[in-house]
């Protein structure tokens, strides 16, 4: 069994970024030595912090599939890695942050012109993490200053906050795509990438798990739109509850829905679905 999990709104609670109610479930996974692979929009630095706090030693996927970080000696790699970062071998799948920022700037300028010239599109307010100070990111996200600093250290995606009416927002999103970038909604923000997604990264990692450990059964846990490609790729997709007694709606073959928001849903998935499965 290999478990892929989203962080925000799944292992972490949506408002406080706390995993404390999942500690018992995490202990059960550790006792069974089941790999727990973080698969999130969060950066390498943000995820590394949580991995250290929780003593997790498995590979992880950053920035919506932008890169895969593999602890040295975890796997025999049948192909070359792209770079080394500390104790990790890195497989890069995403476009560089610099290139994304450059193209995004052009796309946003085009979108603003179209919105200004349109009578029906209303006012819009757009901010990107790269243009904000650590303090601004912290205020906007409720991350603490250390976490906000790590969230700003992006390598393969830009986080964009859009406040505006539907028509203006769609103009912005269209220009992002017309310029060859992709976006997905992570619950609060739009994550802009060069087209990587969680599912593509999981396919690469599944190959490595199979090659090294034989047959595997994969689980995926998520709560929002940017988890779709992950949930579609795994054998057992699990949706955790969102605030307000609802689950994100998406077209999946065999989804399970667990009660409990964030870490409480995560825990239920572990005890009611993952551990009991033969
Ligand atoms: C962004 O990610 C969330 C989903 O995980 C989102 O898009 O709503 C990223 O910038 C991430 O690095 C950051 O920690 C998070 C803070 O809410 O927002
Ligand atoms: Mg989430
Ligand atoms: Mg996420």
Describe the structure.
With 278 residues, this protein is an alpha/beta fold. The protein has two domains: 2-94 and 196-274, Rossmann fold; 97-193, 2-Layer Sandwich (Threonyl-tRNA Synthetase, Chain A, domain 2), CATH 3.30.980. Helices cover 37% and strands 22% of the residues. It is built from nine helices and 13 strands. It has helices at 23-31, 44-54, 97-117, 134-141, 145-152, 166-178, 198-213, 228-233, 263-274; strands at residues 2-5, 36-39, 60-62, 67-71, 83-85, 88-92, 124-128, 158-164, 182-185, 190-193, 218-222, 236-241, 256-261. It has a nine-stranded mixed beta sheet, sandwiched between helices. A four-stranded antiparallel beta sheet has the order 7-8-10-9. The radius of gyration is 19 Å and the shape is globular. The N and C termini lie close together (10 Å). The mean pLDDT is 96. Bound molecules: (2R)-3-hydroxy-2-(alpha-D-mannopyranosyloxy)propanoic acid and magnesium ion (2 copies). One magnesium ion is lined by residues 6-8, 40-41, 186, 226.
Report the CATH superfamily of the largest domain. Answer: HAD superfamily/HAD-like
Strand pairing plus helix content: what structural class?
Answer: alpha/beta
Strand residues, percent: 15-25%
Main sheet: strand order: 5-6-4-3-2-1-11-12-13
Total count of domains: 2
Q: Which radius of gyration do the C-alpha atoms yield?
A: 19 Å
Distance between the termini: 10 Å
Strand element count: 13
Q: What is the class of the largest domain in the CATH system?
A: Alpha Beta
Q: Within the CATH hierarchy, at the fold level, what is the topology of the largest domain?
A: Rossmann fold
- The CATH architecture assignment of the largest domain turns out to be 3-Layer(aba) Sandwich
The set of bound ligands, ions and cofactors reads: (2R)-3-hydroxy-2-(alpha-D-mannopyranosyloxy)propanoic acid, magnesium ion
